[in-house]
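Now read these lines:
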Amino acid sequence: MSSLQQRFITAVVLAGLFVTAVIWLPTLGLALVFGAVALLAGWEWAALAGWTHSIARSIYCLCLAGLLVGLWWVCDLAGDPKVTQVQPVMGLACLFWSVALLQVRQYPRSTWAWRSSIVRSVVGWLMLAATWLAIMYAFSLQNGPVLVILLVLTVAAADVGAYFTGRRWGRHKLAPSVSPGKTWEGLWGGIAAVLLLVMVVSLGLPNSYAHVTPVSIGILALIMAVASVLGDLTVSMVKRHVGVKDSGALLPGHGGLLDRLDSICGAAPVFGLGLLLMGFR
């Protein structure tokens, strides 16, 4: 079986499991499932942070689990999520991604800022916890399952659009020192695919979303598309610094779980903060 076939089969299986979980599981069940996914990704990130021993990686994941439980309780995700508690986390995560953009642009000169295992550990906790919180907050809203699926569809559209456009027309490197395969043409192709998705979604908005305009949806989706690429580049930057190609080998044809979640990690906090700012409750 070729690598492309493995990637396709793995992607289909993951998509089926994801949609099934989002549609059928209750809030607590989904929190546990997505929490387990975050911990698996945390196990991979721990190695990228420099904690190679299994005991150290286990402690890292236990700390992440404690952070998720704390967010579940403080933000009241089981009941009526507290906006005043969710918004600062989303804002902090978006601020982090803004700083990460500078780090990616300056790589390898930027390694002094995050080469410490402690710094990279904190980055992983923030990145994974904020992603989990953004998804769970979106799920708690009206039509929550649809919102969560739209988050993943937006990231997938950006990824697929960038892949095919980059392969066909890619000439100008986006971040050659971090990911030589990514091009500016691919980025614009991904954005175009996302805006096409926005047009389709805008046509199907129910009356309960009358306060949301197509322009605001388009702006949010545009920022999410860029953030998803930044998430990919940031994890690639750390992998390149560590000297590994993949974060793990859990997914056939895809590498590690974190290799598939990096784009979502970039887009999810933007999505969560956007929902808050647009008045979703």
User: Anything to note?
Assistant: Residues 214-242 form the longest helix (29 residues). The beta strands are 173-175, 179-183. The longest strand covers residues 179-183. Residues 3-277 form one domain.
